[in-house]
Amino acid sequence: xxxxxxxxxxxxxxxxxxxxxxxxxxxxxxxxxxxxxxxxxxxxxxxxxxxxxxxxxxxxxxxxxxxxxxxxxxxxxxxxxxxxxxxxxxxxxxxxxxxxxxxxxxxxxxxxxxxxxxxxxxxxxxxxxxxxxxxxxxxxxxxxxxxxxxxxxxxxxxxxxxxxxxxxxxxxxxxxxxxxxxxxxxxxxxxxxxxxxxxxxxxxxxxxxxxxxxxxxxxxxxxxxxxxxxxxxxxxxxxxxxxxxxxxxxxxxxxxxxxxxxxxxxxxxxxxxxxxxxxxxxxxxxxxxxxxxxxxxxxxxxxxxxxxxxxxxxxxxxxxxxxxxxxxxxxxxxx
Amino acid sequence: xxxxxxxxxxxxxxxxxxxxxxxxxxxxxxxxxxxxxxxxxxxxxxxxxxxxxxxxxxxxxxxxxxxxxxxxxxxxxxxxxxxxxxxxxxxxxxxxxxxxxxxxxxxxxxxxxxxxxxxxxxxxxxxxxxxxxxxxxxxxxxxxxxxxxxxxxxxxxxxxxxxxxxxxxxxxxxxxxxxxxxxxxxxxxxxxxxxxxxxxxxxxxxxxxxxxxxxxxxxxxxxxxxxxxxxxxxxxxxxxxxxxxxxxxxxxxxxxxxxxxxxxxxxxxxxxxxxxxxxxxxxxxxxxxxxxxxxxxxxxxxxxxxxxxxxxxxxxxxxxxxxxxxxxxxxxxxxxxxxxxxxxxxxxxxxxxxxxxxxxxxxxxxx
Lengths: 335, 367
Description:
Number of strands of chain A: 4
Distance between the termini of chain A: 70 Å
Oligomer: heterodimer
Structural class of chain B: mainly alpha
Shape of chain A: elongated
Shape of chain B: rod-shaped
Distance between the termini of chain B: 79 Å
Structural class of chain A: mainly alpha
Radius of gyration of chain A: 25 Å
């Protein structure tokens, strides 16, 4: 029994053990993120159909910062011309103010870009609600040929060449730049884009001076006439689907898009759209899925007649429009 | 070919590697299943809450659907990442889609009911008695929908519609008519959705799925145990192989040692044998010499030479006996002993030495 035998046996044994433990280590499918804090909101509930936006929430700030950079980075588009923020301008209502948005090569979209503010509280994303989470939503525009027209491979390649993104991704996750991490960062940033402290929320939370007399009249009409049937909850909408023209006829310009029918091909889903949030509605003109209505009074009148079968008087429209202005607030900075 | 000699070690290491890989795999698989089970359990806890929200949706104090939306979103998120049979996934998708269809109708129905039943501030309309009776009929229809009431309400509505001309009434009548028609059209559909939602076996299917996952986890656990056991067994086997090899090496060296001892014994035996030949010659010649005429002194010397030579021969024979003992061939002889002669011999051997040293040598014999 010579020394050589023992040494080679030990070597063989340790290499086998090393091989298997390496296999075990690398087969780990768990998230390799360093301490990602899941976003949680401190919800407050009040009596009545409209609920306030939470003021307090915990969120992973480093991912928010990264998500913000990605959100504003044109590297996500094929020809480096547009970013998420091109169509979702954070400081002007979270949309771009055009009926439909412009993608790469000046292609025009088909639907009005919805606001990204408070989008986290929507039950589904997109006008037709075709995805149920922000992270799934973020994939959409990157691949859409008339929006960013890019692919994850291309985006990852471009981001890898960028020093900031390369270091930040590697600092935050062992996986570095991956599609999942890009989407996660953007979704986390979007989770931080909420607008509490609007006059309506302050009113609901007890400050009776937050709304003017006209706005209070508007609120009563809003609830009484049934607007709050669909436009309820934290987002004053965004909780359910509803059919455009449920009760009465709709203007022809709004019938061109068959809504959710295009996703499900179910005849019952014709003109079905996600009830949009009315938060910051005063900043997000033009209105409806194709942005064909330019002003709030018209939008209110169309809604009242097509969804509730009610012709509103001029005063009523004014009161409700005044109320709609109280739904606006600025996003809060993540501390 | 040198390596071929070590096939047991290679085999053991192979068993070790394969079983530990299998062990690692089953641990990972177990983790994965556990995650899936957690997701399913989350689904199992969300579904009843979601159903409660759905069925509460037509209560008048349910003013917003935040909770519903949150649960809906949560369940859809679970369904999206759930890895189960497609049939179960389809069932869950059907459930979520149906609940969305249900909730959009039930919320509108609730509002329509409220708008239709609203009396306040409409005192002038009370004259429209026909409207009042439509309202009554409508509510009975909502409670127990049947086609007869439905048709009768439709005809009443048409009747009023063609007769109404008062512009003051017109506005409210339009609202009333639209919502009544909506109620008539959708009450049954909504009830169907509701029935469908109640009947869809999502919950039982989830529980079945959880049970299956649990069973799978159990079998993975036994796989885990088996592979861990084989890892240990392979380690023990390696140890045994090492011990076996050591034992082999030991017995080999023992064999060599034994051989060396044998050679030595053989040498001794041969040597004694070789010495015996000249010794016999000496004894023979002394014998012959003794038979020649000698003086007394010579006679005595020669006798002593003969005795010493015979003793030496005995010693040599003893050495031979020694090697016979080692080889197990010694035969014990039965020979009679003469004491007097033995003592004489002793005297002859030791007497002279004792005399030279001035020691008195006494043989004391009791017979």
